[in-house]
Structure formats: C-alpha cells, structure tokens
TrEMBL record:
Organism the protein comes from: Chironomus riparius
Entry coiled-coil feature ranges: none
Regions crossing the membrane: none
Start-end of Low complexity biased regions: 162-175
GO cellular component: cytosol; early endosome; recycling endosome; trans-Golgi network
Region (Disordered): 131-179
Pfam families given in the database record: PH
Highest taxon in the source lineage: Eukaryota
Protein's UniProt name: PH domain-containing protein
A GO BP annotation: retrograde transport, endosome to Golgi
SMART domains in UniProt: PH (SM00233)
Residue ranges annotated for the PH domain, each copy included: 17-115
Length: 200
C-alpha cells in the first residue's frame, strides 16, 4: 500500500492525539527510548518529542497486546504481536511505571478497527434492547383497561330497614282491624235482628 509521506507526516503532527508519551522500543537487539503518538489505529514513533518526521508507524489491525514474559531485563514490558499467514511479528515496548504500561496497553487495544467494530455492534445491541423495552411499555399503556366490577353488597337480614318495619306493622294491624269490624258487624246484626223481632 502506497502512502503519501507528506500527508502522513502532517497527520502524525496534527492535533488532537489519542495518546502520546515516551516508551522504550526494542529494535533488533536493544531497547531505545522513543516518542510515541497514537492517532486512531496508527501508532507513530519519533526519535524524540518535537520531531516532525516519524521514524516509523504500526498499523494496529489484527494484533494482540499482552504482557511480555520474555524480556526480563526490562520492567513494565509488554508486546504487540501481529499474526499473519506464515509469519508472526512481535514488537516489544517498555514503560516507566505500572500505571503508564497499563494505560498504553489499554489505548493500543482499543485503537484497533476490529475492536471498534465490536464496540459498535455492542452499542447497537443495547439500543435495540432499549427500543424493544420502550415499545413494550407503550403497548402496555395503550391496552384497554378491564372495567372493575363493583363488589357485591350483601345485606344483613337482621338489620330491618325502616320501610320494611312500617310495612310489617301496617300489615300486622290489618288483621286486628278486620276482627274489630267483624265484631261490630256481628253486634249490629244481633241488635238489628232483636229489634226486628220486637216489632214483629
């Protein structure tokens, strides 16, 4: 792949950058202190800070970032490994402290385009879950509510309503009135018949 060097240099020195700082970089057999600049998935390295022309760059695709157990001479050492068909390329780097090493390892890992694709896929999955949850909530709100039936009222048979007591007293008084009229009628008939007898 051909790269326009002028444009590449301009891009390497432009702001903002994702991360920058000194690391010890192993070339051939020894470690050399170099100024590194991370922009996107491109890792540039310069001889020193302020240089305009980078010594080289690493395209951070298809790589793994791991702690290095091979370089015992260097503390806080990690490696960037590229695996291609028939070839494994390994680059060793070392930081000044544990915190710096961990920060660089994380930044380089997250710079990969493959990693960004995984992050985009994960964000899309989370958005779909949120959309489905919102749709379910909207459907549940729009569903017609089942009318609530009023509770059945059961009357206590021992509690007589005033109207019913009046009716019962009224109906109870009716037989007495009938008997009273019957008695008066019989007395009247007896007297009337006696008077008739006297007249005859």
């Amino acid at each position: 792949m051909k790269i326009n060097e002028k444009n590449l240099y301009t891009f390497a020195n432009s702001k903002p950058v994702d991360r920058e700082g000194y690391l010890y970089f192993k070339r051939d057999t020894k470690f050399s202190k170099r100024w590194f600049v991370l922009k996107g998935n491109l890792l540039f390295y310069f001889e020193k800070k302020g240089d305009k022309e980078p010594l080289g760059l690493l395209l951070l695709e298809g790589c793994t970032v791991e702690l290095s157990a091979e370089e015992e001479s260097q503390q806080y050492c990690f490696q960037i490994q590229f695996m291609t068909p028939g070839e494994i390329r390994t680059y060793f780097m070392s930081a000044d402290c544990q915190t710096s090493m961990e920060s660089w390892m994380k930044s380089i890992t997250c710079a990969s385009y493959d990693y960004m694709k995984l992050m985009v896929a994960e964000l899309q999955r989370q958005l779909e879950e949120i959309d489905n949850r919102n749709k379910n909530q909207t459907l549940s709100k729009n569903e017609p509510k089942t009318p609530v039936k009023p509770p059945r009222q059961r009357q206590n048979p021992f509690n007589k309503l005033p109207s019913s007591s009046n009716q019962s007293s009224h109906s109870a008084a009716e037989p007495s009135e009938v008997r009273r009229r019957t008695i008066w009628q019989s007395l009247y008939d007896t007297n009337h018949s006696s008077s008739n007898t006297d007249v005859l």
